[in-house]
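Input structure tokens:
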């Protein structure tokens, strides 16, 4: 529709930070951690990188951020692999939801979750935004220019005064013309 735009409604926002060195220590100390927390595809992705601990930290932060965006956390029937992070064809990360997390998203009418991942040598950060179905909204009204509105109103009033002055002059000119007796002209 002309004059309308589509806007997604935000259902929730989640942010999480994981220290890369802490993740490295967990992975070294507890090798089963990888298989309990990450899917086969996530492990394959992380292990293909030069610094796997950084990418495991990113994926873990992403899982936490998604859960925060949905207003929940691990536990209460939610498994670590109920949120899996994949990359699309352009390399952008996106979460795949399953199990209890998929149910929660559906209950909240969440239609998509946007995910952003960033890292330094020390930290991995994930941001997740849960959105409900897009709705049409009216575009915001343009700011009013009060000076221009006043100038336009003045021009309109000035035009009306000019019209009145012309009519007045026309009526005065008619009043000054000699009156003719149209009735007497027709009688003989």
């Amino acid at each position: 529709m002309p004059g309308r735009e589509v806007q997604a409604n935000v259902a929730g926002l989640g942010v999480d930070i994981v220290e890369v060195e802490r993740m490295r220590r967990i992975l070294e100390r507890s090798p089963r951690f990888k298989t309990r927390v990450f899917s086969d595809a996530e492990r394959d992705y992380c292990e293909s990188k030069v610094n796997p601990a950084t990418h495991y930290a990113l994926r873990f932060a992403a899982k936490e951020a998604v859960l925060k965006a949905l207003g929940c956390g691990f536990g209460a029937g939610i498994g670590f692999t109920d949120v899996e992070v994949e990359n699309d064809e352009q390399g952008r990360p996106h979460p795949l939801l399953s199990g209890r997390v998929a149910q929660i998203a559906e209950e909240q009418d969440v239609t998509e979750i946007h995910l952003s991942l960033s890292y330094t040598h020390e930290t991995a950060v994930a941001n997740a935004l849960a959105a409900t179905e897009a709705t049409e909204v009216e575009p915001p009204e343009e700011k009013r220019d009060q000076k221009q509105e006043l100038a336009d109103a003045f021009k309109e009033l000035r035009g009306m005064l000019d019209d009145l002055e012309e009519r007045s002059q026309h009526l005065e000119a008619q009043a000054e013309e000699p009156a003719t007796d149209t009735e007497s002209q027709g009688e003989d």
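Strands lie at 5-19, 83-87, 93-97, 110-119, 123-137. The longest helix spans residues 146-176.
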